[in-house]
Amino acid sequence: MANEKSKVKRVPKRGRYDKETIHGILDNNRICHVAFIHQGVPFSIPTIYARDENKIYLHGASVSRMLVELDKGIDMCLSVASVEALVLARSAFHHSMNYHSAVVFGKGKSIEDEKEKLHALKVITEKLVPGRWEDARQPNPIEMKATKVIAIEIEDASAKIRNEGVGDEKEDYDLDVWAGLVPINNDLQAPISDDKLKEGIEIPDYIKKLVEK
User: Can you give 40-109 as a three-state secondary structure string?
Assistant: First the structure.
């Protein structure tokens, strides 16, 4: 999926270019950062996203500066990353992190077809919480009009992964300094019911299942 633009240049052995790896990293994250130029000024905006085949869906207010700009077909890129561990070396210079990251290049286009737009919103909702779309009230015409959905075809992409231990200088192994990994978990916690929830409504099984993973 890569060309010279997305090729990993720093520690190239950590680069991955196959769809399975890139799609997996995209699917395992919830927030992406979208980078673009508007009136000569660079922006990087965090936002929810979802992948569907070789497309990435973004959504927001119909007047969103980011979405309006992307609809013009400008060059853009988005990135995602997850951190699995702090890597604490004996020297400050060799401290690092273990991570999975991906960078995607493409161009955006607004989805105008109502059926396709509703499908995209379902994909985004189901990515956050599988089973939620059929349980929640779906968008009404006013909400649909107030929402813009952008589809980005993945034209070029790469992943970069660090999943290894400490790398110190040979002479530093004799130092009296602790070194190792500090694992990081990003687990979902127990649900907290809304204080205006109608009496008798229990937490749905699909949410319990999500939290128990």
Answer: CEEEEEEEECEEECCEEEEEEECCCHHHHHHCCCCCEEEEEEEEEEEEECCCHHHCEEEEEEEEEEEEEE
Q: Flag whether 161 is in a domain.
A: yes
pLDDT at 2: 61
Hey, how many other C-beta atoms are within 10 angstroms of the C-beta on 108?
A: 25
Q: Distance between CA 47 and CA 193 in Å, rounded? A: 25
Does residue 33 contact residue 39 with C-beta atoms inside 8 Å?
no
- Round to whole Å and give the CA distance between 71 and 68: 5
Query: Cβ contacts of residue 120 below 8 Å, gap of 6+?
Result: 50, 52, 57, 59, 111, 149, 151
Contact in structure between 176 and 198 (CB atoms under 8 Å) = no
Is residue 128 within 8 Å of 30, Cβ to Cβ?
yes
* Confidence at residue 186, expressed as pLDDT on a 0 to 100 scale: 86
Render pLDDT for 123-141 as a digit per residue (tens, 0 to 9). 999 999 999 999 999 999 9
> What is the rounded distance in angstroms from the CA atom of residue 108 to the CA atom of residue 74?
7
Domain of 91: which CATH number?
Answer: 2.30.110.10
By three-state DSSP, how is residue 14 classified? Answer: helix
pLDDT < 70 stretches in the chain? 1-2
Whether pTM exceeds 0.85: yes
Domain enclosing residue 69, as ranges: 12-167
Distance CA 132, CA 88 (A): 40
